[in-house]
Write a structure and sequence with these properties.
Radius of gyration: 20 Å
Order of helices and strands: HHEHEHEHEHHEEHEHHEHEHE
Strand content: 5-15%
Oligomer: single chain
Largest sheet: 10 strands, parallel
Bound molecules: S-adenosylmethionine, 6-(5-methyl-2-OXO-imidazolidin-4-yl)-hexanoic acid, iron/sulfur cluster
Number of strands: 10
Amino acid sequence: MTVHTPTAQPSAPMPVLPAVFADVAGTRDWTQPRHDWTREEIEALFALPMMDLLYLAQTVHRAWFDPNSIQRSTLVNIKTGACPEDCKYCSQSRTAKAKLKIEPLMGVEEVRQAAVRARDTGATRLCMGAAWRSLKERDLPVIVDMIKAVRAEGLQTCMTLGMLKPELATALREAGLDYYNHNVDTSPEHYGKIIGSRTYQDRLDTLKAVQDVGIKVCSGGIVGLGESRSDRAGMLHTLATLSTHPNSVPINMLVKVEGTPLADEGVTSDVDEIEFVRTIAVARILMPRSVVRLSAGRHAMSVSTQALAFMAGANSMFYGEELLTTENSAMTRDNQMFEKLGISAMSKNPND
Ligand code: SAM
Ligand code: DTB
Ligand code: SF4
């Protein structure tokens, strides 16, 4: 139950808040990061009328970021397919029957060239992904050289290589790695329906190892895995109650790849785009200083939906013709979108 108190103030009042916020209504500074969010509060945010949710998200967003500036990262798959894990959404899992050309670990020069192309088209970070369960000691020297080569071309570096042990995290930090991506993917309760080959706690342990050595954490999840709204709240609850919020929070819309259990078994119910935008808005409100990325799935979204996501507080995206194994939104289309919306590329995160 919400109570609307009419106001005669000429300035914009805060939206009417649900009962769970009654004790802090009018007194809470929503722009300050908190780590004690309750699941009930998060679910109440999800349930706000859309305009109130967007208003609150924009208010929080503008306290820390230029709302007309979007960070761009380019993805490169440095090792494709034959992954021993069983993530039901992923085309690269050994259990998937997706049509995919398996590729060994890329050479450093090929990665350097990808970095040059990404930089010259306007990205500021190269995200390098490998279809691995975890980083192994034997691959470390090549990975270190990749990090150095990409940095030498003037780009920030991000790696997503699966689970990471503390000693290998230290080696990546010493090589100069800026970000490590490792998603929690969904809520703790829904997780077991999607992935059986590693636990939720394994993921949290990797995030801790990354955080402990001072590499910036990139962690988010996927919408459209057959989860409920409460699961989406649970996923964001995990991220927003970490002792430090991830610097970067990718929110992916499931890309249904033929040959993956989630695409073939029809176990997912499509999540509509308004619900996806709500998830972004709630992520923005919960983690005011994090960069929230409108990630996979843009390809199928209209410019209007993407504009709503930016209004909801997304301020990063993947830029480039490809994601890891699937198509991304075309760069010409993205450039036109930026022009239409008056958006420019973010060169520096003010909160880093
Ligand atoms: N193997 C590493 C791992 O899983 O940690 C790194 C690469 S993995 C592809 C990185 C993330 O991409 C996954 O955790 C998942 O959130 C996202 N992802 C993978 N396939 C996806 C799909 N079909 N749709 C949306 N997101 C996807
Ligand atoms: C993330 O959150 N999304 C990216 C990145 N981190 C590694 C991956 C999206 C993959 C989409 C499906 C594909 O191209 O295979
Ligand atoms: Fe492997 Fe990562 Fe795909 Fe899971 S998401 S199957 S760990 S590449």
